Amino acid sequence: MSRKLIHVAAAVIQNSVGDILIAKRSTDKHQGGLWEFPGGKVEEGESALEALSRELYEELGVEIDRDKTHPLIKIPHHYSDKSVLLDVFQVNAFSGNAWGKEGQPVKWVSKSQLDTYEFPAANRPILNACMLPSSIAITPVSLNPAEINSFFQGVSAQGAQAIMLRNSEYSDEEFRAAYSALKQSNSDLKLPMLVNCSLEIALELGAQGLHLSSERLKALESRSEFSGRWLSASCHDEAELEMAVEKGLDFVTLSPLLFTTSHPEVVPLGWERFQKLVSECTIPVFALGGLDKSHIEQVVNCGGQGIAAISCWVDK
User: Fold this and answer.
1) N or C: lower Cβ tally within 10 Å for the chain?
2) What's the pTM?
3) What is the pLDDT of residues 153-196, one digit of tens each?
């Protein structure tokens, strides 16, 4: 018999310097002793946002600015003894000083340190969503390894928050050279770096992020095959999204959202279909295809993590 989902509203609360608030669960509670993103149960007759506002005031003494609070991700999760639906919001503004009104330890943590804390399994996608950026710049096919530095400088100046090295026309030797050049260019900024290549090359390079094509996703047996922090894949439909979730990936790209001149024969998903697929996916989703930086807010409002793009960073 299927169990009823316990509806819980949770918050990724970010302060003015970008730190995230986490709280420690009491040892006498389910998953006690672990850190979590604060929130609580949605009561009958409440919306998730109403419940979140109430819970955060009761638990932490803060009042959220609802106009600057938006949905981040929804996660159904089944433990051995209960099932929960986490309705997670990003809180970007609040009033009051957060403290543990119920005696719970609370802590402001930088995003780079979140991985050092132990969270319940259901919180893993939330952890990923709040650590991931909202924009990824993908290297164009026309880029040769010698041009990596100028490309990196250009996209970082335009606000790209992560870089994906992708070029199916590179030989393995050229890919290694391009990765080395990108790593050197990124030595000061230390933006998240992903490689779109074979699992074998990614492991050889010691890459911390690997993005799989849909074909490589299908060939992947388990998440444990890649030892880096971030494993993602290109998805185009519901079946591929489900496969990515089942294999334990950290996030995906979903494309094409809009019409693209690079693949004019492919019918785009459109905003309505994109939003529906994202709402049913339990890991962060980046939109790809026909997008530029002006679409980030709309993607986020549809439940997406942000955009991954090529041409918007280079077509001027």
Assistant:
1) N
2) 0.90
3) 999 999 999 999 999 899 999 999 999 999 999 999 889 999 99
**Whole domain around residue 304: which residue ranges?**
135-314
Domain membership flag for residue 153:
yes
Sequence-distant (6+) residues with CB within 8 A of 84 are 5, 6, 7, 8, 76, 77, 122
How many whole angstroms separate alpha carbon 256 and alpha carbon 273? Answer: 11
Spatial separation of the C-alpha atoms in residues 155 and 147, rounded to whole Å: 13
CA torsion 33-39-45-50 (nearest 10°) is 170
Q: Give residue 243's Cα distance to chain centre.
A: 17
One-letter amino acid at 214 equals S
Within this chain, do residues 175 and 96 fall inside the same structural domain, yes or no? no
User: What CA–CA distance (Å, rounded) separates 159 from 173?
Assistant: 30
Give the type of residue at 126: I
The whole-angstrom separation of Cα 42 and Cα 54 is: 10
Residue 39 lies in a domain: yes
Structure tokens belonging to residue 102: 């119920």
Judge if 28 and 99 occupy the same domain: yes
Cis preceding linkage at 192, omega within 30: no
**Alpha-carbon gap, residue 32 to 53, rounded angstroms:** 23
Domain contains 74: yes
Q: pLDDT tens for residues 74-113?
A: 887 777 778 888 899 999 999 999 999 999 999 999 999 9
Q: What is the CATH number of the domain that holds 227?
A: 3.20.20.70
Q: Answer yes or no: do 117 and 151 share one domain.
A: no
Closest CA to 215 of 168, 250, 258, 182: 168
Look-up: residue for tokens 């998903």?
A: 269
